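Collaborator request, handled under Task 6.
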Amino acid sequence: LPADKSYCTINFSAQTSSNSLQDTIEGKLEKRTKGVFAPIGGKHLVAFIDDLNMPQKSKFGFIPPLELLKLWVDNGFWYDRARCELKYVKDMQLLGAMAPPGGGRNAFSQRVSACFSVVNMTQPNDAQLRRIFSTLINSKLADFSDEVRPLGDPMVVASVEVYRAVCRELLPTPSKSHYLFNTRDLAKMVLGVMQVCWCVILPVEGVYLTCFCCLVPGCCLGGATR
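Structure tokens returned to the collaborator:
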């Protein structure tokens, strides 16, 4: 960030409350005048909030931390909980990120989403994944032998098929709660191939199998999953 800006990262969880959120943000502020607070050092604070929709809903159906943020966005202040006085917060900007509702993440009302400029990034389809990773793999294999160079596209097609099969078949269980896969794991398979040196002679299928084991280590250890 530029020198005139500061930042703080806040990770929401199911236990996050409006009290803890307010205390965290106020820890980055200093008092300017009576009832007015701003970032330390005269800077502009960028508060990044991850997993914006993770806090639990109240029994009335709203999410208290998000209602606190909405109060500040709409009015520029929140309340001192001890003195019941207004506390204006200046020179602060909110930046949030979240995944779609489900798996512990909650949907919230349009009243809250109206406080943000929303950018929605959808999951890429198979054709998009193949194009992205084929470009990388083919660029890497350009210096390899004629025997290896044409195998870039087939490897990417196989990687995408394995990734889809893993997401479909290896669902999380109480004993394997880490079985949560996303495109980052697919990228790790491709990264494994990208690290192969052209001067090392290895069977391509061996390289690919090694990358697959990096993606799903549990599958290579035997047992019922294998």
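The cover message to the collaborator said: "The beta strands are 5-11, 29-33, 36-39, 44-50, 77-79, 86-89, 92-97. The first strand starts at residue 5 and ends at 11. Please let us know whether this matches your experimental observations."
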